[in-house]
């Protein structure tokens, strides 16, 4: 019979305070000038790496190790934190959608039947990120969905695109729009009225996260639903080309635009009787739009007109909130996470990050679940992120504030696990600004130091790791690993995550003597961290968890 009770670890004590630090976007790569972690002054992380070899190692943070379809899939924070917290590897978003599209089961589900009701007299709108990044969405899935929906009765289709340049190269959006236009032309040849209706850059239009800045979602709403935007074009290719000509712009930050017909009328506002699908599989940057589309009571911005639509997400974005109510593919059901086990075994837990990553150490960590397991045992602290700026302007972000809160939580003695995410290397790495990313890495390192110092003071244990790579490689490379140049001879900046492994370091005065990394888990990944942490809290992990990374040598 199932029980939440974890067995006592035969050799490791309970009751040690443990700091669990996740550096977001901090991978391990060759030391060269595009490795911002190498370039930055990072004495604390350096000392962990140069310390005892049995207390520092690398683990996989991409591809199959985190439930993604192939080894070419870079890691991301959602799947990374899911694996870290769940201790097991679940087929993830992209893979679930691939399976459902390949088998055709996506068209047999409740979600598709629901939106299909609108096909006879309404328009099918698809809203989402247009790229092959594979973090939030994939263009090939959109292509399959367009084909599948049109074969199943959709006669009028409008695509609302969000340009990327964050999970793929900046400047690649034009190519993706051209590819999509080609498909839509083919659909039109078959008598289906299919067009791009609106667009904008993902970081400026629609894809905000964790309620950081609702004006981003509003800009999208105005373009997608109301058909209103500061820019009008008759072609999306032209729109992206023209808007990119402005100084200091990039695919991520293109302003919103709508496509209009020859008489200047928007071709695809969303109206009563239409069907809407948000085609991102990843939740964090679609939840806000899902709320705007679905909630009757909504006060985040003035929606002006709320069309009566049938709406489905590619996946359900929040299981707890049941949001959206309808979805095309069922999400991975992640149960019995390490967070829940530990709380149920008496481990008092503190979790903290700033807004842009707060959901990562709470919601994603806890298996895509909002809220506390046991309010009397847990405290989750969100430090408001700077909003309305790009993070290269403030590369230190809130690292110091996060570290101070963690330090205070450690020194208070009220918690057994103190878990934080330090966003700098990822968020600033995504801007592609190398100098700022160096500053970001230094700031994260200083935050780690403050937390480790507090652990030293209370005789605790630390585990320092990361969720995926980013700042350790800022340039696109060829197969041999040499930087790639663009037509003008400039290096191609890599704004995305990487395929690199990430470090795991353990230590602290509370670490029992003899604890060391095993040598027989060479392919360990992020999912092995949960069992490791359970051991360090004095417990044996459940049988179905990925194995622990540590052993205790007889002294
Ligand atoms: C983003 O949403 O910012 C990127 O696509 C992925 O970032 P994350 O996986 O590190 O949150
Ligand atoms: Co990232």
TrEMBL record:
Mn(2+) 1 binds at residues 426, 430, 497. GO terms for molecular function: manganese ion binding; phosphoglycerate mutase activity. It comes from the Eukaryota. Residues 17-539 form the Metalloenzyme domain. GO terms for cellular component: cytoplasm. Substrate binds at residues 136, 166-167, 202, 209, 282-285, 357. Its EC number is 5.4.2.12. Its main location: cytoplasm. Its cofactor is Mn(2+). Belongs to the BPG-independent phosphoglycerate mutase family. This is phosphoglycerate mutase (2,3-diphosphoglycerate-independent).
């Amino acid at each position: 019979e199932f029980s939440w009770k974890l067995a006592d670890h035969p050799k490791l004590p309970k009751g040690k305070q443990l700091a669990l630090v996740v550096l977001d976007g901090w991978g391990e790569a060759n030391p060269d000038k595009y490795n911002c972690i190498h370039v930055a002054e990072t004495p604390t992380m350096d000392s962990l790496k140069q310390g005892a070899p049995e207390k520092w190692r690398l683990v996989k943070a991409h591809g199959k190790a985190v439930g993604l379809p192939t080894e070419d899939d870079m890691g991301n924070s959602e799947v990374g934190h899911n694996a870290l917290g769940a201790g097991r590897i679940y087929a993830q978003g992209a893979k679930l959608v691939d399976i459902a599209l390949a088998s055709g089961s996506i068209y047999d589900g409740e979600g598709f039947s629901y939106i299909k009701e609108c096909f006879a007299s309404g328009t099918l709108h698809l809203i989402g990120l247009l790229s092959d990044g594979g973090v939030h969405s994939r263009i090939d899935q959109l292509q399959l969905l367009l084909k599948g929906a049109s074969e199943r009765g959709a006669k009028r289709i409008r695509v609302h695109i969000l340009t990327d340049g964050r999970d793929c190269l900046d400047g690649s959006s034009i190519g993706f729009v051209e590819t999509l236009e080609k498909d839509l032309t083919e659909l039109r040849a078959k008598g289906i009225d299919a067009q791009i209706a609106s667009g904008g850059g993902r970081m400026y239009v629609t894809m905000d996260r964790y309620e950081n800045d609702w004006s981003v979602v509003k800009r999208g709403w105005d373009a997608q639903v109301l058909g209103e935007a500061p820019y009008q074009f008759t072609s999306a290719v032209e729109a992206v080309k023209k808007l990119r000509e402005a100084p200091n712009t990039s695919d991520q930050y293109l302003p919103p635009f709508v496509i209009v017909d020859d008489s200047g009328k928007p071709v695809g506002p969303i109206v009563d009787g239409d069907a809407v699908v948000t085609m991102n599989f990843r939740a964090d940057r679609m939840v806000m739009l899902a709320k705007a589309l679905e909630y009757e009571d909504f006060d985040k911005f003035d929606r002006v007109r709320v069309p009566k639509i049938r709406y489905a997400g590619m996946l359900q974005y929040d299981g707890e909130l049941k949001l959206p109510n309808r979805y095309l593919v069922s999400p991975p059901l992640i149960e019995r996470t390490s967070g829940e086990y530990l709380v149920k075994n008496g481990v008092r837990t503190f979790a903290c990050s700033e807004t842009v990553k707060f959901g990562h150490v709470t919601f994603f960590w806890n298996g895509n679940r909002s809220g506390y397991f046991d309010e009397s045992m847990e405290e989750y602290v969100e430090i408001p992120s700077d909003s309305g700026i790009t993070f290269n302007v403030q590369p230190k972000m809130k690292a110091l504030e996060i570290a101070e809160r963690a330090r205070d939580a450690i020194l208070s003695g009220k918690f057994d696990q103190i878990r934080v995410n330090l966003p700098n290397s990822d968020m600033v790495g995504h801007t592609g600004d190398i100098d700022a990313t160096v500053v970001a890495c230094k700031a994260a390192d200083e935050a780690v130091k403050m937390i480790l110092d507090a652990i030293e003071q209370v005789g605790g244990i630390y585990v320092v790791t990361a969720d995926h790579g980013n700042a350790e490689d800022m340039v696109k490379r060829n197969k041999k690993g040499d930087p790639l140049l663009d037509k003008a001879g400039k290096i191609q900046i890599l704004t995305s995550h990487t395929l690199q492994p990430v470090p795991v370091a353990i230590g602290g005065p509370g670490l029992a003597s003899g604890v060391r990394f095993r040598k027989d888990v060479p392919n360990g990944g992020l999912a092995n961290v949960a069992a490791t942490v359970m051991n360090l809290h004095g417990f044996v992990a459940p049988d179905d968890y990925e194995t622990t990374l540590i052993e205790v040598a007889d002294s």
